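Incident log entry.

Two folding requests arrived from the same account within the same minute. Monitoring flagged them as a possible duplicate submission, but the sequences differ. Recording both here for audit purposes.

Request one:
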Amino acid sequence: MTPARDASAMAPCAALLEAAETALGAPMPALAALLSALAWPVQWSSGQARARRSLAAWLVDEDARPCVLYGPSGAGKTLLCAALAAEARQQAHAPVFVPAGRAQGLGLSHPVLALLDALMRGEEGPPAPADTARLRQSVAQELASGRDEDEPPWLVVLDGLDQVVLTSGEPDIDVLQHVGERTRVLVSATGGLDDARSWCARLGGRAAETEFVEVEAWTLAEAEALGVALAARWAAADEGGPEARVAAVRSALRRRPDGARVEAALAALARLLGPAEAEVLDEVAGEGAVRALHAAREDLAGMVRWISTERRATFAQEALRAAWERQTAAEGAFIEARLLHLSRAALEDGAGAPAYLREHAAAHMTRAGAGAEDLRRFADPAWTSVTSASRAAEVLADLRRARRALELAVEHPGDVDGASDRTARALGAIAHCALAMAATEERVAEARWAPAPLFTDDGALAGFDAARAAALCCLAQRASAEVSDRLIVEALDLAAGVVCAAQPLSPAAAARELVPVAREAAARERPELARATLEVLRRQELVAQRDDADLLRRDQLALLGSALPSSGAPGWVEEVVARARRGDQPASALARLVGDEGLAPDIALTLRRSLGAAAPEERCGLMARLVPWLPAQEREPAIAEVIACWKRWMADAEGAPPPLDPTSQDAFTSWLPEPAVLALLEDVPLWPAGALAARLATLGHTEQARALVMQWLESPAYGAPALLRVAAAASPGKRPVLRAELLALVGALSGNQRAAMVREQPAAAAAVLGAEETVASAAAGVDEFGAHAALAALAAVAPHLPESLRPEAARRAAALYRGDPDSDALAHMVLLAPWLAPAEAAWMVATTLGDVAPRSTLSSVLCGWGGLAQLAPLLARAGGDGALLAAAGEVRAAVS
């Protein structure tokens, strides 16, 4: 409604506008036009007055439940929201007022989230994220965290969220899902109580935990006292509403000589997503459309609102816009086609496109159902040239819209014929967008705007190329032989340039990414590249922090066997050992020289022989980890040395930490001869009983092993895993009795304990419990915190199941992951890739790539958590060589 203007409204309106413009650091002329049209009336309607009293009571109620204000169009919801926000300052609240809608330039999720985040973050807060998905997370965190006791409580007023255009590229805004203490949230929606409840659910709320306040429409009898202009009285309860008002205006326009042109302009205006420049409206509706609108101002009173500082117009009410759109449906197809054409043209113009199209081209194209080739163009350099922070926000919003539309295309590829090719193209386009998003976020983080280069030194550029080489290598390993050979050659050529860098790579992890590439180099008769990689690893180690240095030393030893001739290995190993011993924790550093992937036997033997200068306590942990990788004739003396070190510690520990950690003890025990096992029985429980019992069973002493478990591991949580190991090692004849005892113990375990047992001993579980019982136990690892335990167990056990059951394990895991897409569980889903449905694998790539790393960078999209290297098995499953080649093409073309 548009009531009589009251001068007392000016200050509150100005304060709301100033807060919004200060938060975003930019003028908001469309919002200014809205607020200038609002005024606190001298007299409120009876429906408004009742709603004001209800809102005032809600604001001070101790039960801080969210509130939904609802009512018909024009009843005064925006006015009530603005009034409550302005008046809340007097009641010691910190108001946040966001009036959504096309007319205010807040018709899409991104600008709404950006303004809400900026207002809640405040001037002293950290920089706002620019990507829509991260903005959404930031807003959710702000709302859920609430306010401290020494701060005024939030009053978050979100008007007209039902007017936000939710295209395939726009996420819902779940502002009611988690609301923290000392935070009140009010949203408004048009319609009746059922509509309000529906929007409450869509915004993440629960109707039973939400306050609903109705504002009834005013009547024609009240209109005069309220000062409602004649042109705005269509909103009265006893009038015809927006449809009747639009019909009346159209009828008046038909009597004008330029009426057809005005109608065409308004039909176009009704389909725009925000205020547009005159040139854009003329392009859509035809030359002279804006001039015709100006000439028809009197006939359009109350229908169109003009933004005085610019040649832009919008509908005065969303309901009038929607009614005009409905009544001009015949013209709609032509107008939408024009908008699609102009959006495509804007992609060619890039920064030279009109502001409206720079902000809305992606939304128009996703609404029109544009294909992968169109959507991927939003990641092309012509569009993603980021010259400022404001342009970065627009670019990231467009890329996110394109990605979400592509995700839907991947999830629903259409007809079977050609589906694989369409999926491959869409996944390639998603990779293109993910890399462009990462490059943009890196520019935002460094405030390094185009045309300045993104990488400022050779080390950073070399690190980027190392990640590209590693990503190509990982993609190649999942491809057919012909495709693999081609990609490996490209990866090796990239790596050859990297190893020539004169300074350490940045980030430090980039050096480690070269290891798989170097192994391929050695296997393909390019030993000089493998050797050069060793030099890079050593150079990087010298400047790395302790944890990174430990890993870099491990990488060097793992690569030595293939990168150096046997004559050069001893000297290199001795240097590695010497550097490991220089730190303040030499025993730990030495033990970390051997990882799960192990060492070549000759390197393991060389490493053992290089430990002569190390004290027994320093070398004990490393020796225990070396045993599995030593030549057979060298294991017995190594085992004896470790046992002797352990016994010395047992005899005279004097508070010193044990020389072996439980993991090393467990692995070491499986190599012990019988006398050593029997000797260690007296050290239980300091030596793990479960490991000794499993070794006893392997040596044929099943009854003694069972008795050891029953004596020391009475709790089912410890006894069941230990007895499973015993049963797996026992002879087939003794297994049924043990299985029966085991099932009784398993029945007493929680779901997470059952899943953990399967994850830690997948082969044993499948062999002893049976495939179906094992799958059920694995899938039981779900609780209120998520399904991570179940996903880990299903991934671990799948390779050990009968071939026919592996897809079932993958299907269960996929369903759990969809219900709770825990990024920490991503590695488990990758292990299940061979048995996932192709569409499921494609969805996981589409929704994960570049989005789960703590910070999005080019290197993280290539080789980080949720990067192309990690997701290569899912890509292969989703689209075979086509998807792998599409991704490789984006890696190859990725530029700074």
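Request two (distinct sequence, not a duplicate):
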Amino acid sequence: MKRTSALLTSLLLPAAVITAADSPPAAPVPAPAQLIKQSPMLSPEEELKTIELPDGYKLELVLSEPQVTEPVLCVFDGNGRMYVAEMNTYMQDIDGTNELTPKSRITRHESSKGDGVYDKHSVYLDNLLLPRMVLPLDDRVLVGVTNTNDITLHKDKDGDGKADEQALWYEGGPRGGNLEHQPSGLVWGQDNWIYTTYNSYRLRWNGAGVAAGKENTAANGGQWGVAQDDYGKMWWSNAGGEKGLWNYQTHILYAAINVSSQKSADFDTVWPLVGAYDFQGGPNRARPEDGTLNHFTGCAGQTVYRGDRLPKELYGNVFLPEPVGRLIRRATVEVKDGVTTVANPHGQSEFLRSRDLNFRPLNMTTGPDGCLYIVDMYRGIIQEGNWVKEGSYLRGKVIENGFENNIGKGRIWRLTHKDFKPGPQPRMLEETPAQWMAHLAHPNGWWRDTAQRMLIVKGDKSVVPALVAMTQKHENPLARIHALWTLEGLNALTPELVTEKLKDEDAQVRAAAIRVAETLLKQGNEALIAQIKSLRQDSSPTVVLQSLMTGKLLNWPDWKKDSQTTIFMSPSLGVKEIGAQLLVEAPKLAGNFSQNDKKRLEKGQEAFRTICFACHGFDGKGMPMPGREGVTMAPPLAGSKTVLQSDFLVKVLLHGLAGPIEGKTYESQMVPLGSNSDEWIADVASYVRKAFGNQGALVTKDEVKKLRTTNKDRVVAWTIEELRAGLPQPMTNSKEWKLTSSLNDSALSKALDNDPGSRWSTNKFQAGGEWLTIELPAETEVAGVELDNTRSANDFPRGYTVVVSSNGTEWSKPLLTGQPSGAVTELVFEKPVKTKFVKITQTGSAKGNFWSVHELRVLKPAATTAAVGAK
């Protein structure tokens, strides 16, 4: 594919361009890549020379250092003023020293002449902890920063460009975890709810000083950035699981669904111009001949282009930055029989790519001028410190290329085309609600979204009659949809109007009418149910699916049975594939739990599906590596000894895990999650121990706290060998032991026969007072006892007391008491004791369950090892 380059002539004037043929040849040949060993930082003019674009397109420099440094996103308010979040403490050296110091900022930039040249700059908010979310409302702005789920509301009251009013809008509380595993987005959806990544909930603006609304959603699987299309569907991207674009078949309110046909062949293969083998996934993610990235891995900050000042063929396309690959993917979008599909129209190439190793596109958005804006963090390291620790593959590549020295810069680019001029600057903050309403029909989606948001934030119902007329008479279906949702946001929706719109000639309007009807249905207006159910016979798969999803969301009686009939009878592939997934229920957890434990497990499940699934898979069997059959990104958790043995799992969650596991090296590194609370760690550990067929015990926050304190000086990840060396080991002389019990003495040998299929059992339901005694051949240092009843998972003791004796007649005070909850009961003493007899008494009751032991192990103390990993 032919590509050319040209020089940026001025920082204050539109930039010159690098052009290339817009349409790839029928059989494209990969462009030659270049392996670079050093990465000097370039000026904006020099950087532009390294960038390739299709013919006719050009990049214009909008902002660069020192006006912006370390930018991660940009958004616009109603007057076209740009807000830029800057993470000024992000990875300022290879170890991320002082990264969590509140020295970052949000800057505001204005074009005083309305010509697209941003010449007025101010620091809107300063001394922030790595700001990550910004949402202008009107002249007020919502902001989210790192390590909290709180969202604050700000206003520049005196017009000096600096916020001087602040209030808490949503109190989400503190949040831990790696900064790359925290929410982003804060996108006001067409449905008037606000969406973020990671959080399995959505928020609603109910006015300043009024508590935000909150509703649960499916786990979205997103990481950095959220985008929505013309019909309000959110588009997510995932880097940790190398998924690229995903979960875009349905709105995330209803489910996170993917189907096999949603991407063209090799869609996730990327085609960079330059490489340095500098990928967290290691050599397997690089083309050996040139070191270029071969698959999505760092995708982030996607947008759906909905502007009006670029060629029409781009409208509705999804643009996905890949900062690790130094490129931007353009994805064409087509709905085929209800299934949303994406494809790369540039063959073995990309829409935009650079030869500069410091080009790091992190975020894109459609601007008020109808152009596309690109946030280029322009730096060396683009992976957080946990992925470049001592001994990691990536650290060597960072040092080899000098990436750790390339910091403190950043650029905002505007994508334009030779056949179009950027549109005018908006002045919505000075306009009336009637003028805003007219913008609901604007060809640029940014204007439609902004006008709808401002109408709802203003809450002026004087426009309701005109909005009703727009839904009924406007020739543009998008205008009708926005008017409908604006009425919903103003609480001015009527059943009569919804009934009318359920019959609209446009399928997307009919689908929107079903969705807005949910608000009335929640208020008890059941008369609409029959009308919505009738649309399961609609000619449009989109409408049929929306009817099914609404029934599921509101849990209508027999919704599942009705849905099965609809799916079976439908000729639509999309209805069959997507509808079938709507019927799938979440896997059940092992055991019966108290209400408090259920809540803990639900929290643990949500956290797992937010973060852990990307590497371990939703089923706990490991996320499959794309293009490598049988290989997973991380080890399976189902049946894992690391999960079930001792305190391994909590130690790994707190400090991470490095090195091979059972002889296998996995691409994804288990990073420390210890910045999360003790309760969070306990909930996740408990969920993993009870999910995926596991039968482990629940973990308490006190147990986490104790381990955190014990290992407070640890600074490196654990290894499997180190964990196992610190574990009490089973004694091997079981043939010399003598067992006695209160019941069924003759079967005791089955607890020592190394056959997990046989067992000793009381053969009576647990009532309390049953006991089992182990006599060793001589007094021995004992660290504890392990009772394994995995094959009879519910036959664990409902309570226990453990005592010891040197002669079998005089017994110690209880060394352990408790109430286990798993198929393996670990009775580990606080410190080893010298004893000949160990007696375990079952103290609980369980109608319907015996007390059984399939394998009994007496544990000897762990071998003494030198301290590892301390400061």
